Backbone:
């Protein structure tokens, strides 16, 4: 803590008195030197008194550093949120399966497999030098592979920003492998670090997602082998990058055409049984063995095949998307009353089993969010409104019917129907 300014003033006076005293002694003016000596003693006593008063006042205001303060600082350093550090890890892991199932629709087997693998890891039943877990997600587009990775990052490390996503279609050439760990000496970008190594160095507690890994050059796959086996790599600057606190996830569309083909013949439809799924898994694993080397597949904790999404799954996804819209509107004090006819219209517009959840999300954006955004900007819908959303027979758009405002002093707005 900063000392009071008067302490510095007294110290300057003492220094000046000492200088004059030494000069008087040198000039043999002993009478003046004695007087200056007495002044020096008095000033030193005054300085000690001021310092003692200052120490007493600061002791009363000393802030005790608690365990929570230390946890807060460590949380900022590591990127692991405070609430995750406070809660026992074993308790969180045991709840992981149910939590992931509630967020990721239609992929219960994937949620179970990941949860069990991570529980094994945390029970010290695997090599501590390797990453926390390593998985490959196999299946068609739009079924939740990346979405599961995002939710796993949020669950394990507190926020979806803990997901480091690497698009492997950018690493199809031999020379691109250096971009992951940094350019060698003498090349452009040498001191900047690699896209992978620098991201993990800055955030060692994270989920690292390698998207469409089958498109990567073999040299890149060799680098991944080192990460999976040793739990570390050396970047272009000679620094050891530690992956032991990361979860490695690789996604691939290998075998997706088998699932789509089987789905058209009945697989993935209502009534799919477990034996169908297991048989399809075996076929996809055989296809994966043709694409990936055995030493690569053997280093993974789990190889997980994702289901094609069924219509009931997509209906639940619509509910989640609508719920997200309702939550954002509630922050503006706007109530949205969505009738069943409107919900069925959104499902009809977005249902496409070949492309999974993405068309459903686009249908909600196009038919619900976009018209609402226009009405908010035009002032047709304002804070405090209740808006009913309906779909009339044969209509190609939803109809938005503003109801009474929450404060009765405002006029009731007119009925509005969306355009295209």
Residues:
């Amino acid at each position: 803590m900063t000392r009071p300014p008067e302490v510095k003033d007294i110290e300057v006076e003492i220094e000046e008195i000492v200088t004059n005293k030494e000069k008087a002694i040198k000039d043999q003016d002993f009478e003046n030197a004695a007087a200056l000596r007495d002044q020096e003693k008095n000033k030193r006593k005054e300085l000690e008194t001021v310092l003692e008063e200052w120490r007493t006042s600061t002791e009363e205001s000393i802030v005790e550093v608690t365990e929570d303060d230390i946890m807060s600082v460590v949380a900022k350093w590591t990127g692991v949120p405070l609430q995750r550090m406070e809660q026992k890890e074993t308790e969180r892991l045991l709840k992981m399966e149910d939590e992931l199932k509630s967020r990721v629709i239609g992929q219960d087997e994937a949620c179970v497999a990941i949860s069990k693998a991570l529980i094994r890891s945390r029970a010290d039943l695997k090599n501590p030098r390797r990453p926390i877990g390593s998985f490959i997600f196999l299946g068609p587009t739009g079924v939740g592979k990346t979405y599961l990775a995002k939710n796993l990052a949020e669950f394990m490390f507190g926020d979806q920003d803990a997901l480091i996503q690497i698009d492997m279609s950018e690493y199809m050439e031999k020379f691109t492998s250096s971009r992951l760990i940094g350019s060698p000496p003498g090349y452009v970008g040498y001191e900047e670090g690699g896209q992978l190594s620098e991201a993990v160095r800055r955030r060692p507690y994270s989920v690292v997602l390698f998207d469409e890994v089958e498109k990567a050059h073999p040299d890149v796959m060799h680098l991944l082998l080192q990460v999976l086996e040793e739990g570390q790599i050396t970047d272009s600057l000679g620094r050891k990058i530690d992956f032991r606190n990361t979860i490695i996830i690789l996604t691939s569309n290998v075998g997706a055409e088998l699932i789509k083909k089987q789905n058209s013949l009945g697989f993935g439809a209502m009534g799919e049984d477990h034996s169908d799924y297991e048989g399809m898994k075996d076929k996809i694993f055989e296809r994966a063995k043709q694409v990936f080397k055995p030493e690569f597949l053997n280093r993974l904790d789990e190889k997980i095949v994702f289901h094609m999404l069924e219509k009931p799954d997509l209906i639940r996804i619509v509910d989640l998307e609508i719920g997200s819209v309702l939550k954002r509107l509630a922050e503006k004090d706007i109530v949205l009353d969505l009738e069943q006819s409107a919900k069925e219209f959104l499902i009809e517009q977005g249902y496409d089993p070949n492309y999974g959840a993405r068309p459903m999300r686009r249908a909600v954006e196009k038919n619900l969010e976009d018209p609402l955004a226009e009405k908010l900007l035009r002032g047709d819908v304002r804070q405090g409104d209740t808006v009913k959303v309906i779909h009339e027979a044969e209509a190609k758009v939803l109809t938005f019917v503003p109801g009474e405002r929450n404060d009765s002093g405002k006029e009731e707005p007119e009925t509005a129907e969306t355009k295209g």
Observations:
- Residues 265-271, 408-420 have pLDDT under 50 and may be disordered.
- The first helix runs from residue 5 to 26.
